[in-house]
Amino acid sequence: MATDTPKFTVKDLDLWYGEVQALKKITFDIQQNTITALIGPSGCGKSTFLRQLNRMNDLIESVKVQGSVLYDGQDILNDCDVIELRQKVGMVFQKPNPFPMSIYDNVAYGPRLHGLAAGKKRHHALDEIVERSLVHAALFDEVKDRLHKSALGLSGGQQQRLCIARVLAVEPDVLLMDEPTSALDPISTAKIESLLDDLKKQYTIVIVTHNMQQAGRVSDATGFFLTGEMVEFGKTDDIFFNPKDSRTESYISGRFG
Amino acid sequence: MNSKKVPKTAHQRHQKELKRDQHHAIIHWVVTGFVLLVLLYIIGYTFTAGFKNLSLQFFISSDFDRGIAPQLFNTFYILILSMIPMLLIGISAAVYIVEYAKQGTMLKILRFATETLSSVPSIIIGLLGFLLFVTNFGEGPRWEFCRLAGALTLAILNLPWMMRTAEDALRAVPNSLREASYALGATKLQTIFRAVLPASIPGLMTGALIVSGRVIGETAALIYTSGVAGSSNGWFNFNLIHVPGDTLAVHIYTLFADNPTPAAQQGQTATAVVLIALVLGVNLLGRFFERRLTKRFSGE
């Protein structure tokens, strides 16, 4: 595996909401099979940046983008099939958002869209995908007896892991996570954090978080955003213990944000 | 000239506000109570007058003033016939408004049109139905007074209501579900059909049931379209365009207009009981689905 080819290469990325510039000349690389944390105060552009990696910003009309983002060497801003991109670059949202359907149907939603379970033994194949995804998201044991019950009966933490399973079911390559634990209690948070460690063996993970301890615990690299700029990016240990920029240092030490 | 106003303390002001609050509460209670009383009076009056005239015979007989078998059948037949086009067009229009339309002139025109349509008197819509379906403007092949004409007329009459309730149902689907679907690589159409519409089914059911209540109770729009006669050749008859047929609501009107004998009056009150019970039942069913919808999105 050519681990030194970056998964994403971001260069001079600018983004505007109408007249307001939300991202300014963002430039950095995201390495394969690592967890990259994006930290910074509210409204600094970290979520906006994350949503550019799978082009969710397309859903907002007023957004204009400039610069380049390469995913495995492919320009995803101009020359790319968004549907295919989103299948490869999955996303978990801040608030768990399961569909009001059964647990099974939630996980099977993506595979059904993309016809991942094909052939004569389609149902069997789909069962397998659902089970594998739930196992992978460390949820299977808790829900195996009620796969066909509503997903809304699950606890918040379980719902969030279900959302992770739902993303894993479409066989992505990258997981984008937008403050995935900010709506959860500490125990559920711990479960998801330990899950992240497992997942990075197979996936490249980019996580936006408000919680600096979390960034310190789970990530390999950290980027610090401030008012639309990437102030500093580097190994998590360097950012936390040896920041180069004074703004990073004061944010890390809790002087603002 | 010594009556200088003493500035009120915060406490006094607070007391005054509290009192005002109480007065308002009382007014609201009185008004609400009045509305409730009117409803109870109508239901109570109808039931005391008509309940004793109900019998099994009344439900299965097709005699003009002794039974309502054809009218019951026609009511449900017309209801189903009108709901099919109404649901299809109403939901499609709502999908367009909620999922596709951009704020602008087109949407404004659409809103103005539906609002105007919903305030046109039903007798006018009935005349339109008469021209459009029954006489075909006096040109070419024509239907007669028939239940399909009545159903289509009711579909036109209630389309704005169906659209509005369907729109509410779609808007009640949280955006986070749409995002979840897009993020899994769904197209817009897939998102609408696989995530948004399934999630809005309880809301759509509520809307459809509320509109059903209106369809069941409509008279004016039917008099010139499906006609005032019970199905002549056997009441259990599916013929769409050659057989006229009156509904329960129209039947109440005809019984009185044609021949106000005591027997007709008894039939009238009994029919009213059945009609009110039906409308009430449909509305209660609508409430039930509404509650399920709220449950569904709050995660019980």
Report on the structure:
The complex is a heterodimer of chains A (257) and B (300). Chain A has helices at 46-53, 82-88, 103-114, 122-136, 140-143, 156-168, 186-199, 212-218, 236-241, 246-252, and strands spanning 6-17, 20-31, 35-39, 63-71, 74-75, 89-92, 174-178, 204-208, 221-226, 229-235. Chain A has 257 residues and is of the alpha/beta class. In chain A, the strands form 2 sheets. A 6-stranded mixed β-sheet of chain A has the order 6-7-8-3-9-10, with helices on both faces. Chain A has a 4-stranded antiparallel β-sheet with strand order 2-1-4-5, with helices on one face. In chain A, strand 9 and strand 10 form a beta hairpin. In chain A, helix 3 crosses helix 4, helix 3 (103-114) packs parallel to helix 6 (156-168) and helix 4 packs across helix 6. The radius of gyration of chain A is 18 Å and the shape is globular. By secondary structure, chain B is mainly alpha-helical. Chain B has 11 helices and no strands. The model of chain B has no long low-confidence stretch (mean pLDDT 88). At the A-B interface, helix 2, helix 3 and helix 6 of A face helix 7 and helix 8 of B.
Question: Outline of this structure?
Answer:
The complex is a heterodimer of chains A (257) and B (300). Chain A is of the alpha/beta class. Chain A has helices spanning 46-53, 82-88, 103-114, 122-136, 140-143, 156-168, 186-199, 212-218, 236-241, 246-252; strands spanning 6-17, 20-31, 35-39, 63-71, 74-75, 89-92, 174-178, 204-208, 221-226, 229-235.
Topology:
The complex is a heterodimer of chains A (257) and B (300).
Chain A (H helix, E strand, L loop, with lengths): L5 E12 L2 E12 L3 E5 L6 H8 L9 E9 L2 E2 L6 H7 E4 L10 H12 L7 H15 L3 H4 L12 H13 L5 E5 L7 H14 L4 E5 L3 H7 L2 E6 L2 E7 H6 L4 H7 L5
Parallel strand pairs in A: 3-8, 3-9, 6-7, 7-8
Antiparallel strand pairs in A: 1-2, 1-4, 4-5, 9-10
Chain B lengths: L9 H41 L5 H5 L8 H32 L4 H15 L2 H13 L12 H25 L3 H9 L4 H30 L2 H4 L24 H11 L3 H37 L2
Helix pairs in contact in B: 1-11, 3-6, 3-8, 4-6, 5-6, 6-8, 7-8, 8-11, 10-11
